[in-house]
């Protein structure tokens, strides 16, 4: 059985690392379209607490999660969490 990896995406919000497909910047038009489409489908999760969106997390269930922390920071937390489980 796979270990569940939890990633802190800021402000006490946590996502399952096993479900993350991509962590991207929200700047480009295609990513803005993905956000808009997810909002229309009811699959957008806004975890920014009113702050500027800096990272967009896309999951394997087509949910789109907005975070106020940088994509690199989220990715580093993902990698650090993954490395700590590899010792088990």
Q: Strand pairing plus helix content: what structural class?
A: alpha+beta
Overall spatial form: globular
How much is the average pLDDT? 91
Report the total helices.
2
Radius of gyration: 13 Å
In whole angstroms, the N-to-C terminal distance is 13 Å
Uncertain parts: none
- Fraction in beta strands: 25-35%
The spatial strand order of the largest sheet comes to 3-5-6-4
Number of strands: 6
Give the SSE string: EEEHEEEH
Largest sheet: 4 strands, mixed
Helix content: 25-40%
Would you kindly provide a brief summary of this structure?
The protein is an alpha+beta fold and 88 residues long.
Description:
It contains two helices and six strands; from the N terminus they run E-E-E-H-E-E-E-H. The chain has a four-stranded mixed beta sheet with strand order 3-5-6-4. It has a two-stranded antiparallel sheet with strand order 1-2. The mean pLDDT is 91.
Q: What attributes characterize this protein structure?
A:
88 residues, alpha+beta, two-stranded antiparallel ribbon, 2 helices
Helices and strands, with pairings:
Blueprint lengths: L5 E5 L2 E4 L3 E5 L4 H13 L2 E4 L7 E5 L4 E4 L3 H15 L3
Parallel strand pairs: 4-6
Antiparallel strand pairs: 1-2, 3-5, 5-6
């Amino acid at each position: 059985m796979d270990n569940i990896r939890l990633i802190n995406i800021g402000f006490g919000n946590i996502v399952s690392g096993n479900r993350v497909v991509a962590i991207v910047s929200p700047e480009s038009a295609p990513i803005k379209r993905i956000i808009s489409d997810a909002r229309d489908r009811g699959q957008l999760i806004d975890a920014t607490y009113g702050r500027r969106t800096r990272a967009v997390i896309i999951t394997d269930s087509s949910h789109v999660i907005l975070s106020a922390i940088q994509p690199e920071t989220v990715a580093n937390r993902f990698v650090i969490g993954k490395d700590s489980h590899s010792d088990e």
